[in-house]
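Reviewers asked in the last cycle whether our approach scales beyond single polypeptides. To address this, we selected a multi-component target totalling 829 residues and predicted its structure end to end. The input consisted of the following lines:
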Amino acid sequence: MKNHEDIIDRMTAANPVPDLGMITDGQLAELMLQVEQDRTASTRTGERSLEAQEPPASRRTGRGPRSRWFKPVVAFASALVAVLVVLGIVGLLRSDPAAVVDEPAPSPTTVPSATSTMAPGTATAPVAPPPGASTASSDRTNRIRSLAVAGDGSLWAATADGVVRWDLDTQTPTIYTTDHGLPSGGAAFVETGPDGSVWARGDGWMARFDGALTTFSIPNGDPFQPVDVEADGTTWILQPDMSGFGVVDADGTFWAPSKEAGGGIVGSNGGQTTRLVVPVDESTAASSTTTIVPAAGEWNPILADTRAGPAAVASTCPAGADPAVAGSANQDRPAAGWAGLLAGAFDNRTGRIVYLDEARETWTFDVCTNTWLQLRPTGEVPGDLSAGLVYDADSDVTVAFGFNGVSVYDASANTWAYQNHNPLGAGPGQFAPMGAVYDPVSGLIVTTELTDGYLDAWAYDADTNTWTLIGRLWDGGDDYVWFELLGYSREADRLIFTSVNNLTALVDPRTGTKTIIETATPGIDLVWPGAQYGPAADSTFVAKGTWVHGGVFDQQFPDQICGFDINTSTWTLCVPMPGSSGYAAFAAMVGDPINDRLVLVHGVYGNFWGRSDDGVWAIALDTGETVELLAPSERREPTGPS
Amino acid sequence: MQPEVADQRFREMYQATERDVLAYFLRRTDATSARDGAAETYLVAWRRIDDVPAEDESLPWLYGVARRVLANQRRSYKRYAALGRKLSGIGVPEDPSPEVIVLRRSEDQEILDAVERLRPEDQEILRLAVWEELPHRQIAEMIGTSAHAITQRIYRITRQLSGEIERSSPGAVRRTGPPASEGGGGS
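The resulting structure, written as structure tokens, was:
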């Protein structure tokens, strides 16, 4: 935590405007004057008729956004401005690239090579687009990642499967996919160039649409890195804009990705709403379920080796203990705090939850008496966790996967032992394990190395302290779905992955075969709150609240905790978020096989650092009823997440 | 929305956010560009007043617009600078960033330089979180992901920055394994 806090502290100290009080009244007055002038000269959307009746004297007379660069110019180069105006290239100085149409398109000399050129050399303002399809082969074409308005007024979208040009006059799409020359189907973003042409970027490529489609390879495969495009001394930057706030076209219509089921684009203009959805050709539409079998030798069969030893399991509460009765409110309890630091796992042998609090103290929660006990183990507690805690049943230890390595807690000896500096996080800038589940067949723990470019599966053997690379699950490449390991279903013998793109993937740990299911999927990332695996809960539960607030998920899983139904391949095992205080999630969700319930530790109420209170709840898995096992020491007002 | 209602709504929004929006630009560019950028941001808001979210949600919406405005500013400025060099040889600063006009403490400069080397979206996420103190949920809405992803991503970013600074510090020695003092993996 020290490094993290140090960086935050240093960033805070380097804030050029740490206090809003530093802004002077004079600055505010200047701003207000400029805003009022701009407003007076502007046309508010949906109010054109009113604006048209205003006297000409009230209209803009040459200042505002389009001329704002004149001021710094005048400060030290007024003569240059005059030259520019005389040359009639004022448009070059405009900030709205969609309106700039009179500059020759730059040729991207900094981009190494054109890998395919359908019609090279047509470097003029946008003309008729190259041929494309009018129907999509998949509804992934309606998953919008970025929007741009071209110089010719057309609306362009980067999608999960190709780039789409919308003629806004006729509301007809033209779709460009790999069939039309794109190196790969998924486009990360689109931007409008200085000449009004449209540029798209994908994984390892970018493309220019200017009447022809020209593609270029880019050595840096990260689609979110900007690219300097230079020509004749002019430089502009092709850079991502993933804000999702949409764009305004020449008519003042605001276009943004639709949050409705089915995706597409929605435009609004003075109360009038238009939705653009690419029609999907059902005859060629891909199945909603895709199965991918790894090639021979690409998947290490180590998980198919049935070698898990027997595991002791605590199965009942002692006589006299009533797990439904709330624990004492006055008891000592772990320190709540930033939820990203908190983690828990159910120790099957002791029948208690092992828990690490914000102060890195080790506790157990007795699910029969609902009481906390601080353990004060010997050895060094693990550092910051990247994949939480996992109970290794046949080894009878709890393994902590952290950014700096692996630590193991032995409850019988009450000791923590640092095991190794794992190969995943072995240096600054590298990645630590993300997501970890115990595999009851092999007795190994499966985790992943999740990067921006790929996702590898690894196995960790707590008995021998060894790591084994199992295989590559995904090259980030074509689709930036970034699957993340959430849990393991014993019932189906599948690892469960989710993405933020409404995709759930089931992976056979023995063969590496992937089944990708297009279904409404909670977009919880990076395995926190922790995935739940246990004998009593073979579903993967994730919390849903404001933590998955953007995009379509907001409508799909409002304030619920949902599990994946392996029988229907849907996330339909949902129960309401317990409590009335607006929890966004829980720091840990741990299966309690003794009482057949899901224990929810430390409710997160979602402020700046995802703070949590120190209460404990439980959900009965058979009835969905919730019960408060331990009231928080400080009850918050039920105002909901901030 | 009726004009008088729209005007009242805009004024209320403006008064509630003017310092935050201006500060957003001042943290990223020079004073003149900051004022221009803030003004353009509010112009977009005025034109789109029907789409501006209510109350607490309006500020992140404005930040989203501001981010785009700033990107366009820098793009235009780079193009202007290049054109200026071509036409008259007049030197123009490459980027009107606050670093040009503010004399910083060396340790501040070190972290800011490291941040500049991050990918743009990571830079913005970190600044929104630390400088604008925007809740992760609202950053997530802007970026189009979950708040938890933002939380974890910030964590990754700080880890990356820490490594960057460690490597760039004089006398830094690249570790090949866990030092004994980190036996527990603590960072």
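Chain A touches chain B through 127 residues (CB under 8 Å). We regard this as preliminary and will revisit it once experimental data from Aim 1 are available.
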